[in-house]
Amino acid sequence: MAHFKMCAGKVFFVSLILLVLLPLALLGKFPVADLPAPLLADANRVLRVYNTDVIINGPGSFKVITEEAITVLNENGKGPDWLVINYDSHTTARFIEGSIYDASGKEIKKIRRRDLLATSNFQDFSLFEDSRVLLYRPLVTTYPYTVHCRYEQEHTRGMYYSWTFSPLPCYNTSAEEATLKVTHPETLAVIYRSYKVDSVNEFTTRNEGSNFVKQWRISQKSAVLSEHQSPGIERAVPWVGFATTHFEFAGYQGSNSSWNEFGRWVYSLIAGRD
What pTM was estimated for this model as a whole? Predict the structure, then answer.
């Protein structure tokens, strides 16, 4: 009898948990009804989540982990809803997970790795490139819908160029929340350049063991309307650019500390090969 009471108590406890969690599950993810009016004004799409985690291991390697969710509001919003992951002989790409949700936040399709197409990223102005992409285009014709995905890129080379983070990558796009986190060894300095950062909501720095961490959080950014002869989007929105002071690429060591030092590295690549 005592055992029956104990089991009945467990069943009641489990049932209570299910009653609490079930309404939360029915709410769905990224419902469009939750978007405030300012984010819908002049917007064809909304970045619901755009999180970039950059882990710099040293001058010769770094990893980028990305999570993004894009709500496509109308036909003009198609384009950035494509999942595009770049890779090449010095970069490996790994797709982690992805899903498509309807306007209410109900999942209508789960994106698998086999759904992605691996193809060349050959540019029409180049004679040869080894750059490739993993891409996926949702076959959805009912608007609005949301594409959510997570992926990572492992780079076996250094930052010989500036990596740029912007919550608004193009016109007529608003952002609900975006974060950038950069982690690097204290022994390797990182150069930062930013634009319109006074409109950034949060900025923090801290130490994690022998690593130094900088983090930005940007939220509730309205879309910038595209007009005739508008300048590049980088002139109208906040962004953060960064690179390590020293880097290594295929055994060639270089420096970003000045244009003169960077030029020395470029010269070392072609020295004696003319």
Answer: 0.84
